[in-house]
Design goal:
It is built from 11 helices and 13 strands. With 348 residues, it is an alpha/beta fold. Bound molecules: 6-O-phosphono-beta-D-fructofuranose.
């Protein structure tokens, strides 16, 4: 006899590992707890519109290694939709859902925290390639994206060296520079620029000139999309168009930076924007395992009726983290960690 009806959704930007998490929640939910599982389509949008269908063992078969999300996703903010919360409550009632498992980043988990206060039983699972979610040491998706960045830097290094050029690599990371810092350390970048540590364009150019003077006639510069110049501020060319959660769509810093570097140093410079290649494709083994551990722990919380929590990784253990502690906070790169990266590029 089934004891609970569980709805699962994935919200915000997709990332590798989402399917592994869905698989774990559904598999343990059905096999161990005999729950009825439902897939909610396209994040909060599906819960508002009632776009929901049953998830069976068949639905989750063969998805572990696949990128994206079988449920679809969107950046819908239920608090910005007319009658959003009212409609969510109606859908929950209509389908008889006892619990919502929300897989997402700061926005999706933030909305889940507010919905819990409204009386909805929610459990959160953290994901984002940006790794900026508070309450967990890692989010899945991050490790895969770092591998993609590392490979890109390796490839840029050889062509940079052959042509004696500066290569600027723009990576994602809206508020936090984890991707640039980890990828940059792993790939041996000659400069890493992140949102947490505004940079001085003049010093950047001087650093590249110094390398040339020392006989290093090429450099790889990794820059986060959200990095800022100390005098100019944010360097972004894209329209100031905002999503439902009020985030501007960033992009363009790599192009602006490469032009400035070329102008100020006289060195030939090229830009590569990795964009959504960082979010697509198969998850690494690390991300598959983390997503699986998160999924299993989340359905255990459901079983214990422990709602209003997100699962998080702390000291390599999966622990419940109260959603109210995560709300409105970000995990940014601490200065001591950025200092580790700096050892290799002697910037300043
Ligand atoms: O939130 C994750 C993220 O990858 C950010 O780093 C980036 O700014 C954003 O998604 C881009 O998302 P989209 O193009 O899907 O709106």
């Amino acid at each position: 006899m089934s004891t609970k009806k569980i709805g699962i959704l994935t919200g915000g930007g997709d990332c590798p590992g989402l399917n592994a998490a869905i698989r774990a929640v559904v598999r343990k939910g059905i096999k161990f707890y005999n729950y009825e599982m439902f897939g909610i389509k396209n994040g909060w949008a599906g819960l508002i519109n009632g776009d929901i269908s049953p998830l069976t063992m068949d639905s989750i078969s063969g998805i572990l290694h696949k990128g994206g999300t079988i449920l679809g996703t969107s950046r819908t903010n239920p608090y910005k939709k007319e009658n959003g919360i009212e409609n969510i409550k109606k859908t929950i009632k209509k389908f008889g859902l006892d619990v919502i498992v929300a897989i997402g980043g700061e926005d999706t988990i933030g909305a889940a925290a507010k919905l819990f206060v409204e009386g909805i039983n929610v459990v959160g699972i953290p994901k984002t390639i940006d790794n900026d979610l508070f309450g967990t040491e890692y989010t899945f998706g991050f490790d895969t994206a770092v591998s993609i960045i590392t490979e890109a830097i390796d490839r840029l290094h050889t062509t940079a060296e052959s042509h004696h050029r500066i290569m600027v690599l723009e990576v994602m990371g809206r508020h936090a520079g984890w991707l640039a810092t980890y990828g940059g350390i792993a790939g041996g970048a000659d400069l890493i620029l992140i949102p947490e540590e505004p940079f001085d364009l003049e010093k950047v150019c001087q650093h590249l000139k110094n390398r040339h003077n020392k006989g290093k006639h090429f450099s790889v510069v990794v820059v986060s999309e959200g990095a800022k110049e100390i005098n100019i501020g944010k360097l972004s060319t894209t329209a100031k168009q905002k999503d439902d959660f009020g985030h501007e769509r960033l992009g363009g810093i790599g192009d602006i930076l490469s032009k400035e570097i070329e102008k100020n140093t006289g060195f030939e410079t090229r830009v590569t924007v990795l964009g959504h290649t960082q979010r697509g494709g198969s998850p690494t083994a690390f991300d598959r395992i983390l997503a699986t551990r998160f999924g299993l722990a989340a359905i255990d919380l459901v079983h214990e009726n422990k709602f209003g929590f997100m699962v998080g990784l702390q000291n390599n253990k999966i622990v419940p983290v109260p959603l109210k502690e995560v709300l409105g906070k970000l995990k940014t790169v601490p200065p001591e960690f950025y200092d580790l990266a700096k050892v290799f590029f002697e910037y300043d």
